[in-house]
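Hey,
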Amino acid sequence: MKLPSAILILLLLSCGQGNKETNPIERTKGKRETESQRVKEDARETQTLSNEKGVREINIQNLYKAMEDKDEVEFLRQFPEDYQQFQSYFGWNAQEDAPHELYEHSVHYIEYLFYLLRTNKYPSYEKKIIAICEDGHWEADGVNYFQNHVVNYIKENDTYYLMNELSNDKAKSVLFFLFDGPHPKFDADFASHLSPSKKEILEELFETSFYDHNENPDPILPDPEKPDLMDDEGSIHYAVSDFEGSEHYFIRDIDINNDGKLDKIVSAARYQGDELFLFENVGDEYQHRLKTTNFSEDGGNQIVDVVAKKGGFFIKTAFLDGGLLEADYHITFKNNAWVLAHTVYRTQSSNQEDAFIYVCNVVQELNLEDADFFERLKGMPYETDRERLCTKEKMN
């Protein structure tokens, strides 16, 4: 007998429903697979949305992009979190005897970091610079450039709490990095702002942990076998002959006191220290008049030359390991004193194709013999002020 088509359809539907009821495991399995797929799709969608919102992975390429875009928040987020990462971006690769990827551009990245911190918009990132210092050690160039900037930032902004709130173990590690170098120098002013325990740590580091890496000590140090070098007050007598023929110094014949006679200026050579000595031509002898600085910095600008000019001379320095960063210190003789009249700073605006050179003429009017000379010395204007205070030159 042939069944009506409507009844046949009902029977088929009924059988299908029966089959489903008799296979609950298969039905549940299929549901889990569908749910799992939905979760994966949601995760992919969330990741896509995150990427669209600019949440990037932390890596050197994204730091470069943030720097290029001048994306302040992203730059701070992408900047290294610790010394090992910082060194791997900006330091020297000792194993391959080659620079790391951002070595030659380290000055610009470090300056931009501290420029952002000085805007006072990102106080939470101050602790990042301290974290980078932990377990660090001195290296030339970018690493030491950062080292100097941290010390100056703490002093200029009176943020010694960044040190004082550390545990003693962390403070010892950070302070070691901040003052480590080929010629460690105790900073009494910095130490005076530390808590008693942190000051004691710094003093102990200078007593037990630091040593002079210079394998060829300066020839002008007092020699106990030559007491005639010392006067009755214990001052050292310097002579031009102490420096002649030394690979650590160079000598220039320049009229330093506007009397029409050539005198002598002795400067430590590049990477050999920051000493500068002035000798006046008196009769047939050169008499020492002043020991001062040639403005060389560990890991920063180095002496290039000392050049005569009308009324005095200028000391030319530059960052020799990449990028454009120059400073010329113009010194004149007036009122029987050598005075730093002004400094001309030159730096590249960026690494982009349309970059130009900022030329910043900064008035100083500082006696080289003033006790607070370095505290009053004005550096290059901050990036936010350069448009107003500096002129521009085209790149060659």
